[in-house]
Design goal:
Distance between the termini: 41 Å
Number of strands: 21
Length: 463
């Protein structure tokens, strides 16, 4: 039985176009676009999008569902986290599988498949965090690329947990240069940061605000510079995750001006929050502890400029939620024990629409940084990230005039606070289709665990 949906009367906004056209989807794919009143399409379901935007489902290429960290585990499961993603207009996530220390990449990937299978409300893929870079894991990289896991994250931070030394990072980049993989890096000088943490604690500096003070912007810039040079030596493309500091943006801009295949991602928390939040009294600042950390407000201008000039290409969330009660509180007497991470998978598309309203970016750039570019970067385009014949019918009906106030009282993430509590914004998701199936319908959840499918990915389309 064919299943046809017609979306009429809306303004279709993609990374390249803004068109007053109707969209016909059949059996999970977009099959036609046509100007209003120029066709005689018939459908089982008709959605009136008059006065609304019709946009591709968001692609959040950086999430951490059920991630173990610092003696606890991220509060969102694949079920709750992907449901919240759908509420926020995101229809594909790419989460991070973790190679167990001393284990294989395949063991890590299998563990994450087991967590996600049959539980996701929207489609999902995986990156691989490499905890051990050795001859065996380097060889495994080839098999993972062939199997649709084509990106590998390495850390210059978290000594004793995730940190890889420069030689290991270089070897992984060399392997990626031959197999088509993309190396992603968390770029902070973790060894230097650990010295500053030890010294701060010795001085009795224990509040959450010191988390931002020890993880200095210069140490993000230094590590960004270092991994860029290593990628240049390896002849490999590089993707730097969660860029927060103007000095790190400058390193990326310089490399891109030199023609290097170097890419950068930032996150809403760095665009909308600052060290003012980390300094909130009565331990409230713990809610905003993440790494890279929030920066002083003056860094925001450089991030917005980087998004406009394409020195930063992607806005993802680094969604890694820990409840304030019982999880963030683990570091009440020692900021270094506060689990690092913020909730945000539900807020990204709305916050970026607010950036359109505020004049930071254009409508098409909104879709570019949130949908099309992450899909291209991670081998999902044109199946994901656009509205065009042949693409998956991952479509959001977005009301650009509706007003809302972000709050933990109304969000759907499995966490007891919102990083944006009380923020008033304009724009709201109304209806969400995932492969043509309603997941959110007129602001009512219509999805189910298990609808979301695993999506093997191709290689980076920019490399």
């Amino acid at each position: 039985m064919s299943n046809r949906t017609l979306i009429t009367g809306g303004l279709v906004v993609t990374a390249s176009d803004e068109l007053p056209v109707d969209v016909l989807a059949e059996d999970g794919r977009v099959v036609a676009l046509a100007t209003h009143d120029s066709h005689n399409f018939t459908a089982d379901r008709v959605i009136d999008a008059t006065g609304k935007y019709v946009i591709p489902g968001g692609v959040d290429a950086h999430t951490h569902m059920e991630m173990p960290f610092g003696g606890t585990t991220a509060a969102d499961t694949f079920e709750t986290g992907t449901r919240a993603a759908a509420w926020g207009g995101t229809t594909t996530i790419v989460d991070f599988a973790i190679q167990p220390k001393g284990g294989t990449l395949a063991e890590g990937l299998d563990a994450w498949h087991a967590k996600a299978a049959g539980r996701c409300a929207v489609d999902y893929g995986f990156h691989m965090i490499m905890s051990d870079v050795n001859a065996s894991s380097l060889k495994e990289m080839d098999a993972l690329v062939s199997a649709g896991v084509s990106s590998f994250k390495l850390f210059t931070a978290y000594p004793g947990v995730f940190l890889s030394d420069d030689g290991q990072i270089l070897r992984a980049m060399q392997r990626a240069s031959s197999n088509g993989g993309l190396v992603m890096t968390h770029a902070e000088n973790g060894l230097a940061i650990d010295v500053l943490v030890e010294q701060a604690l010795a001085r009795g500096e224990r509040d959450p605000r010191y988390h931002g003070e020890v993880r200095k912007a210069l140490l993000e810039a230094e590590a960004t510079h270092r991994v860029i040079k290593l990628s240049q030596v390896a002849g490999a493309p590089l993707y730097v995750v969660h860029v927060s500091a103007q000095e790190a943006v400058a390193e990326l801009a310089r490399a891109r001006d030199d023609g290097l295949p170097v890419f950068g991602e930032t996150c809403p928390q760095y665009l909308f929050l600052s060290t003012d939040n980390l300094a909130e009294p009565d331990f409230e600042g713990a809610k905003y502890v993440c790494s890279t950390p929030l920066r002083p407000r003056e860094h925001q201008a450089a991030l917005w400029r980087g998004l406009r000039t394409n020195d930063l290409q992607v806005v993802s969330t680094d969604h890694c939620p820990f409840c304030f009660k019982g999880q963030k509180e683990m570091g009440r007497d020692d900021f270094s024990k506060i689990p690092n991470g913020l909730p945000g998978v539900e807020n990204r598309m709305d916050l970026l629409h607010q950036a359109v309203v505020d004049g930071h970016i254009s409508r098409r750039r909104w879709i570019e940084v949130a949908c099309a570019t992450p899909a291209r970067m991670f081998g999902l385009y044109p199946r994901k990230g656009t509205i065009a014949p042949g693409a998956d019918a991952d479509i959001v009906i977005y009301d650009p005039h509706a007003e809302q106030t972000i709050s933990a009282q109304t969000h759907h993430m499995n966490v007891d606070y919102s990083a944006y509590e009380g923020k008033r914004i304009t724009g709201r998701v109304e209806t969400v289709l995932s492969r043509g199936v309603p997941v959110i319908e007129d602001r009512v959840y219509a999805g189910r665990a298990g609808h979301g499918s695993y999506v093997p990915r191709g290689i980076c389309q920019y490399a």
